[in-house]
Structures are given as C-alpha cells and as structure tokens.
Amino acid sequence: MIKVICIGIEGTAEKTGVGIVDSNGKILASQGNPLIPESGGIHPREAAEHHAANIVPLIKDALHESGLGLEDMDLVAFSRGPGLGPALRTVATAARSLALSLNIPIVGVNHCIGHVEIGRLTTGAEDPVTLYVSGGNTQIIAFDAGRYRVFGETLDIAMGNCIDQFSRSVGLGHPGGPVVEKLALKSRNHIKLPYTVKGMDLSFSGLLTAAIRKYESGEAIEDVCYSLQETAFSMLVEVTERALAHSKKREVMLCGGVAANNRLREMLSIMAEEHYAEFHMPPMKYCGDNGAMIAWMGQLMHSHSLVKGMEDTEVIQKYRTDQVDVPWRKSSPKHLRLPAEMLEKGAEANIYPDKWMGEEVLMKNRIPKTYRIEEIDHYLRKKRTKREAKLLSEAKRCGVITPIVYDINKEEKTIVMEKIRGKPVKDVFDNLDIDSMKELCEKIGKNVAKLHNCGIIHGDLTTSNMILHDDEIVFIDFGLGRISDLVEDKGVDLLVFKKAISGIHHEVGEECFDSILQGYRIAKDCDEVVGKVEEIEGRGRYTANNNNSHNKI
Questions:
Q1: With the C-alpha atoms ordered 25, 31, 35, 36, is the resulting torsion angle positive or negative?
Q2: What are the DSSP calls for 89-111, one per residue?
Q3: For residue range 77-88, what is the model confidence (pLDDT) as tens digits?
Q4: E strand or H helix at 495
Q5: Cα distances (Å, whole numbers) of residue 91 to 271, 286, 300, 302
Q6: Could you read off the pLDDT of 374-389 as tens digits, one per residue?
Q7: Cβ neighbours, 10 Å, residue 330
Q8: What 3 state SS string does 108-155 have?
Q9: Is the pLDDT of residue 545 over 70?
C-alpha cells in the first residue's frame, strides 16, 4: 500500500507548529515556535504576525527532520479552528498557497479533536474520556455515535487563561503555568477559594478574582499559588470523574498545554486508579499545540474521503468539537468493572446494599478523594452530605418523589436511604419509541419546575440521577444542589441537563429537551429561565449559537 505523506500547519493561538505524519501514523517531524510576549497576554494581531514570520522556516525545519522534500508531500492540513481569527486566517492562507504550489489536496481540521487523536495515536488509548486543558480551551470530551461529545466545559475562561491572567495580575509574567507551579510547591498552607462546579461544567472567573484579591490583601504568593492550583485542579478532576461515571468508559486521557503541570497529572492519575480506569497522557511535546496533530487529523480525514477541496477551507473561529463527524472512530464495548460488593460508583460516592430495621436499603458513602488535599476534600464531603439529606426531604414537600432518608452520619459522610426499585432513566431511554420518550421528558420537565418553584436547584440533572419506578420519576443525588430562587441558577440547572442529554442521548437530545421545556411551562418564571438558558449558552467560548456564517472566514 502506497503511503500518503501529510504536512500539517498549526496556528490557532500563540504557537506556530509544523508536523509531517505518514498514513501509518508514523510521526516523521514536529517543529514549533511559541510567541512569548515581553509583557501582557497574547494579542491576536501579534500572533498572526508571529505565524507569518515562522511558518516557512518551520516547514524547512520539518522537512529537514523528516529527510523529505516538498515534492514528497501528498496532502496539506491546517488548523481550521477554533482559535484567534487573525491567526487562523494567516495559517489558512499559508496552507492554501502551499497546496496550490504543490498541486495537492488540502483539508482544514478541528484543533480540539487533533489533541484527542494525537493522544490516542501516541498512547494507544482506545476510547477515553479526555480532559483537554489549555490556554484557550477547557473541555471534557468523549466519543459516542459518530462524534466527539462535550460532556463538560468552562462556562467562562479556560483553565490556562485563568492561570496566565493570575500570573500577569500579580507580576509573575507570561506564561504563568510554570512559575505558578513552582511557587505552589513551596507551600502547604491552603486558603479557601471559590469552588464552582455545575454538573459537568465549571467556572473559573470567580476563582481568579478571589485569588488576585487574596494576594492583594497580603497573603503570601506561594500560599495563593498553592491554593489556586489545588482548587482549580480539584474542580477539573471532579468533573472528569463525573463524565467517567456517567459514560461508564474505562480510560482517562489528559491533553493540552496545562498537562505540563505535574500536580494535575498526579491528581488525574489517582482519580483514574480509584475509579478502576486506565490513565493516559501523550508525550509532553504532543500535549501542547503542535503540527503533528494537525497532520494526523489530515490523514484521518483523507482516509475517510472527507477532503473536499479549496472551496472548503474557510476558517471557523468558534469550531465546536461536537460539530465534526468522526467516521474513523467506534465506541468500545468495554466498560468499567466494579467490585462485586459495589452496586454503583459515582463521581462523589460509592453505593452499597445495606439493611435498616430488616428492610433492604442503600448506603451512600462519600469516600475520601485522595487526589484532593484534605482541607478541600473534608469540606466538600461534609457539606454535600448534609445538603443532600436536607434537599431529599425538602423536594418531597414540593411534590417531587425522592428516596426516604433513614439515617445520616456527618462524620462518616454516609446517608442510609430507601432502595428504589426501578431503572435509571438513562437506561430506559434506549428502549422507548419517540412518543413515549417525549412523554417521559415532559414529565421530567414538570418535576424540575416543581423543584425550581420551591427554590431548589438540583445541581446535577442527568438521566443517571433519575429512576423510573412504577411510571413515576424518582430524583436522586442532590449533592451539588442548593437553595436558590435566582433565575441564573435555574438556567444553569437546565443547561447542565441539556448538555448531559446531548452527550449521552444525542440522537433524541433536541426533541427530549424541547419536551422538557414543555413540561417546565408550569414554572412560575418559565420564560425568564428559558431565556437565561439561551443567554448562558451564548456566553460559552464555542457555542452552537455562535457558529453562524459570520464566524467562517
């Protein structure tokens, strides 16, 4: 079989990269040069100028490394998005010029999927839940039914951006990751900072502001760096574990520039081991932005006839991961295997069968998470155990069915509760016709409205946290819940649910959510909340609402 040689050009942000990969997945070259500004952050125009000055020299370096010439290239691939508009346009123009001069095909590829695929290529991971964290992106990604699905993501700034902004604000310079990590190693003094997890989504803006204020109020920089890292990384690992528990996959992969941080690698590896999953991470030179991942993506698309020609090379600044068909992938039939004595392992707790006064019950045990420092772990486990027991009881007063709580042990962080005999709604969905599914979703929407009318935010609405019992829906797992009547909180609650449905039940996700909103009409502030869902979606870095034609250039 004749090998195809692809040259890939990366330039979504501040790093210019050129890679060469053959159709067997052999990386023949990978050259790169990052822009490091003297002060401040990355300006889009400066990034574009950096790419313009470095693409040709890096092509020469890559050819030299591979021992090949331009005449040996069969395909040009370039990063189509997401990224900075001027940077993307510069790279696309260079790629088009190269393809035209060599008279060979050209293909634009999704940058985020490139990170996942180079990770799979270099680690041997088959079907992982991927935590992708960089300066511009924070996503929890997993494959299902033909596409990569975004199970969770930042609702505001990316993880790397959070660290870089903090570093610049306190005078540590750019990039912030290495210096913050170094200073964090000098402290074990934890300062309490905002911990914002919303289902499988996260928010870092409040954490960033609080960390800067702690430093400005006189806290030692080492203590603030340590606390910032531990809090942010605990949030990242928790939502990854939540996606792992929901998807039942048995591999976890870390990629993106923030993967350079040793503490984050350690925490994610511990979580994977405690969850009976394998941990993977690409070699560091392929974690950050690089041309090899773009070249390999070009190969994958070429091998599945997805190369369309010059007319399909416009850049897409807000190119979502879940917009792209991925015909070269299949979901693994292998899933997590739990110990025989454990009924269920969630992101927060283990569920065991138990007896209470002769009745079969369940014991929910929020076990220590050894990837978290003790101060954060103890606080979260105690608060969530107490809150869940309270909300399970409060929800009943609102007409929502929940398990009966028999006992709570705040010291052991355990709740003994009624055993509900039924199936998780997640499993029921697979066997329903479309009309029955819509009816069930509308019923779910009515129950969510009842909770919101009482000022109860569930905090983790997924079909895994609902059980169908005798045609009634039983709501469980209120650990992330709270009391709030704010329209913003209700909107986030619904948006978390929408993303969870889209991730697992994507084939019927849109119809299901429309039916949920039909049921939700009984909410006292329905129109405001539904409008807020759309508003919050619009704030996202790369949202469906933002992928209009004006983002294609």
A1: positive
A2: HHHHHHHHHHHHHHT--EEEEEH
A3: 999 999 999 999
A4: helix 487-504
A5: 38, 19, 20, 20
A6: 999 999 999 999 999 9
A7: 12
A8: EEEHHHHHHHHHHHHHCCCCCEEEEECCCCEEEEEEECCEEEEEEEEC
A9: no
Number of helical (H) and strand (E) elements in the chain, helices listed first? 15, 22
Residue 32, token pair as written in the block: 């790169």
Task: From the candidates 127, 144, 460, 489, give the one annotated as an active-site residue.
Answer: 460
Q: Cα separation of 494 and 447, whole Å? A: 12
Crossing angle (nearest 10°) for helices 221-247 and 177-184 = 100
State whether residue 32 is helix, strand or coil.
strand
Cα separation, 513 vs 494, whole angstroms: 9
Hey, which residues does 81 pair with through a beta bridge? 110
At 294, list the tokens: 């773009």
Sign (positive or negative) of CA dihedral 445, 450, 452, 458 = negative
The answer to whether 460 is a known catalytic residue is yes
Q: What is the pLDDT of residues 147-169, one digit of tens each?
A: 999 988 998 999 999 999 999 99
Question: What is the rounded distance in angstroms from the CA atom of residue 467 to the CA atom of residue 291?
Answer: 46
pTM of the model: 0.88
Q: Please, which pLDDT band fits residue 543 given cuts at 50, 70 and 90?
A: very low
What's the full length of the chain, in residues?
553
**At CA 302, angle to CA 298 and CA 307, rounded to 5?**
90
Mean pLDDT comparison of 268-272, 308-312, 320-324, 420-424, highest-scoring range? 268-272
The residue type at 485: D
Are 19 and 290 spatial neighbours (Cβ–Cβ below 8 Å)?
yes
Q: How confident is the model at residue 356 (pLDDT cuts 50, 70, 90)?
A: very high
Please list the residues that pair with 416 across neighbouring strands.
Answer: 363, 407
pLDDT in tens, 422-442: 999 988 987 888 899 999 999
Q: Which residue in 499, 517, 503 sits closest to 438, CA to CA?
A: 517
Q: What is the dihedral of CA 23, 27, 33, 34, to 10 degrees?
A: 80
What digits encode the pLDDT tens for the residues 225-268?
Answer: 999 999 999 999 999 998 998 888 999 999 999 999 999 999 99
Can you give 344-404 as a three-state secondary structure string? EECCCCEEEEEEECCEEEEEEECCCCCCCCHHHHHHHHHHHHHHHHHHHHHHHHCCCECCC
* Rounded Cα–Cα distance for residues 315 and 551 (Å): 8
Assess contact for 445 and 516: CB atoms under 8 A.
yes
Please name the residue that has the structure tokens 């991971």: 125
Token pair, residue 114, equals 């490139």
Tokens of 513: 């959510």
Residue type, 244: L
**Spatial separation of the C-alpha atoms in residues 475 and 218, rounded to whole Å:** 45
pLDDT greater than 80 at residue 343: no
Whether pLDDT at 319 is above 60 = yes
Q: How far apart are CA 255 and CA 236, in angstroms?
A: 13
Burial of 411 (0-12, 13-18, 19+ CB in 10 A): exposed
